Amino acid sequence: MCVALLLLQFGTVHPSPSHLRINRLPGQPHVEFHQFSGYITVDGKNQRALFFYFAEAEKDALSKPLVLWLNGGPGCSSLGVGAFSENGPFRPKGEALVRNQFSWNREANMLYLETPIGVGFSYSTDTSSYEGVNDKITGKDNLVFLQNWFVKFPEYRNRSLFIVGESYAGHYVPQLAELMLRFNKKEKLFNLKGVALGNPVLEFATDFNSRAEFFWSHGLISDTTFKMFTSVCNYSRYVREYYNGAVSPICSSVMNQVSTETSRFVDKYDVTLDVCLSSVFSQTKVLNPQQVTETIDVCVEDETVNYLNRKDVQSALHARLVGVQRWSACSNVLDYELGDLEIPTITVVGKLVKEGIPVLVYSGDQDSVIPLTGSRTLVHKLSKELGLKTTVPYRVWFERQQVGGWTQVYGNILSFATIRGASHEAPFSQPERSLVLFKSFLEGRPLPQEF
């Protein structure tokens, strides 16, 4: 065995591309792990490139799995929302960065992708690339990104690979996983070991219409309004009308009443939160469209947005702004085909399970936008369709000496779990519990049954 290979095996030589290496982010505390960021071209002809940020595992990076993280929207940034607000190694605080002690790179090599084109620092020099973007285009681009990323980082090619995402990534993640399995039949490239979906959009009507029961059960709406919200105009009908540009008078009336009772001073992504969150944490308003008359009160300064718009930070990240003046958490230029919202992806999840890919669906239990009740219903229904028996009956799981949430497992391959006290962005609101869930998922073990 040559000396270079021996050194690589023991972690003292790093073959990854030096031009993508982050020497140090401005205001960053000292760390031992490597960081990389930059662009991977997915379409040379139209100069379309996706931006990524990659934080290797804190320790034993060579033995830890690779995890691709995708935020939803559609149109929100995995860099700003996922990495810098949820489960990445740092969070902006003032002019500096502070360590996130519950960062997911404690357990894995974390790859954050700003997708689709037009999100964050990802760009095309042809602005028509931002029009009519849909799930099919996004899935294909994400597949090409990973193929080309492995060319730059060949040492990760055979590593155990997991894909994790939240919100509209309930579309992105299963669709990408299905494309990877299809690609593997021609050429074995992806060592896919599992998929996890947080508060995901999986089936439009079930997910959206579970909101009424969630509001009512948490005391946010009256009995009368609950009845109207489930019979006169349900939420899926309202969303469909809203995006078709013609909200009917009856739906407008019902939604005005729902909005009045729930109050704009309650964050729909975390109904127990005492303060409102800035836009960076809300996965855009696509899943939570507002009445035209309602104003969104952003009541805290967004440190992530400020940080990522600094020239020295962009330089350190090897990032640039193309066709936009400012980096934003959720894209202002992307025109996404919102009809795709209604295409169910729970069927794709079923295909993954049939192919032997473990799937975890988890829910922050304080989220009213994609409530746990809809996700639990969909997973249970899928288990019956696939003929999977319950292997872990519905029970609590623990983080330290507290209940971390509830879980149920079917056929040791399909799992559902809640994260107690967590919002739509579970790793932001319950970082320690989310890390426990993440670690169990990677290791293929049931969530802790005792403390």
From TrEMBL:
Its main location: secreted. It is found in: Secreted. Keywords: Carboxypeptidase, Disulfide bond, Glycoprotein, Hydrolase, Protease, Secreted, Signal. Its EC number is 3.4.16.-. It is an enzyme of class 3 (hydrolase). It holds the Pfam family Peptidase_S10. GO terms for cellular component: extracellular region; vacuole. Residues 1-15 form the signal peptide. One of its GO terms (biological process) is proteolysis. The keyword Lipid metabolism does not apply. One of its GO terms (molecular function) is serine-type carboxypeptidase activity. Probable carboxypeptidase. Belongs to the peptidase S10 family. This is Carboxypeptidase. It comes from Cajanus cajan.
